[in-house]
Amino acid sequence: MADSGGSNIASRGATMAVDWEQRIDFARLRGDRLTKAQASLQDSSLGAVLLFDQNNIRYVSSTHIGEWARDKSARCVLLPREGDPVLWDFGSAAKHHRLYAPWLPESSWQAGVTSMRGAMPRETGVPDWLAGRIHGELEERGLAGEPLGIDLTDMETLYSLQRQGIETADAQPVMMRARAIKTAEEIALLEHAAAIVDAVYEEIYRMLRPGVREHEVVARAMQLLFELGSEQVEAINAVSGDRCNPHPHVFSDRLLRPGDQAFFDVIHSFMGYRTCYYRTFNVGGVTRSQIDAYVQCREWLDSAIELVRPGATTDQIASVWPTAGDLGFPDEESCFGLQFGHGLGVGLYEAPMISRVHSLDHPIPIEEGMVFALETYCPATDGRSAARIEEEVVVTADGCRVITKFPAEELLVCGTTYVRGADLVANRDEDRATV
């Protein structure tokens, strides 16, 4: 389950299979994920789980039908303790799976209609129809009297299950346990997702200059992400100048100006695996307060990274970060997410979650094979600028490995294309002196 180092060579997340190198073994990825999910389910008190969360559906069935489906609850999968899952999919998608998804039997791929977040209300008969099919599958497997876990759904679907006499419970802890430790294939895909963002930051560095607007950076970053193989761009933060402090967590149409500090976050997925990857730059110039903020932000981040190893606990990491009071906030909830850690996988937020809000009192151990992001933030003393840096790490047997590679040890200044006349005069005088 842990990071296997060099077991997948060449381009570690390459989509093109070849006969002459071992790359991503997608068959093993699919099998391992389903096995882990059912093992976690067997360790619980639940008989089965009903999954509407698209991340969970992909994890257990290795299917997706695009980002259109993410917020509609239009498909769901029933995963029993043993045996094959059953996916009720949107219309003809089920037929497509029967043709092109042979890793599960045809009986696993069923067309179905959900309440679609209440768009199909009780009067249509749809919620009760689906609940009846779910009850039938449970009864066939001898699980009708067992609790059924649900990760997320609308209230009408929940009521329809209750009308079938099905006891419901929370499925998300089962899935979070399964997803916490990554396999070699998952780590390779996460690393390739980060490599795509490496390239995006190279492009951002080259395009930052006065007159460029934040949303233009977002547009170009999205274009390059999709060109390089991203299948979803969840969000790109682009925050500059006086918008840096406080952090608004959203981009705007602001024009970049000389001397601005600007930070960016790229959240996208490759083959279902996410990134969360901040970098900070300066545009055309820099002040001492901006450099100081960056140095402090980097120190807080490095102090956290140094603690990452199997057996460490999340409270140790949270303890090296500044308090809310240090940052000028009245309580930890008010600055939640500024000093932050979160697991990465098919979801943006997985185990471990690390913050001063909860980790100091409810620590969890760090385990080999976890992959998570650590992000820090430091406002500058000028009252408007701020630095934000984030690294993604893989927990190894003796520490961790950083998989976000765009340079961030020091603050980079972009758009420095100006040449001072004084420098030209000084160079000319030096040339004359050597003649």
Output the keywords.
435 residues, alpha+beta, Creatine Amidinohydrolase, Chain A, domain 1, Creatine Amidinohydrolase, 2 domains, six-stranded mixed β-sheet, five-stranded mixed β-sheet, 11 helices, 33% helix, disordered N terminus
How would you characterize the overall build of this protein?
With 435 residues, the chain is an alpha+beta fold. It has two domains: 26-179, 3-Layer(aba) Sandwich (Creatine Amidinohydrolase, Chain A, domain 1); 181-414, Creatine Amidinohydrolase (Alpha-Beta Complex), CATH 3.90.230.10. 33% of the residues lie in helices and 20% in strands. The protein is built from eleven helices and 16 strands. The chain has helices at 26-42, 54-61, 93-100, 126-140, 155-163, 172-180, 184-207, 214-227, 288-306, 314-319, 421-434; strands spanning 48-51, 76-80, 86-90, 109-112, 148-150, 168-170, 232-240, 261-270, 273-274, 277-283, 340-343, 350-354, 371-379, 386-396, 399-402, 412-414. The strands form three sheets. A six-stranded mixed sheet has the order 4-3-2-1-5-6, with helices on both faces. Strand 14 and strand 15 (399-402) form a beta hairpin. Helix 4 (126-140) crosses helix 5 and helix 7 (184-207) crosses helix 8 (214-227). The longest helix has 24 residues, at 184-207. It is elongated. The N and C termini lie far apart (68 Å).
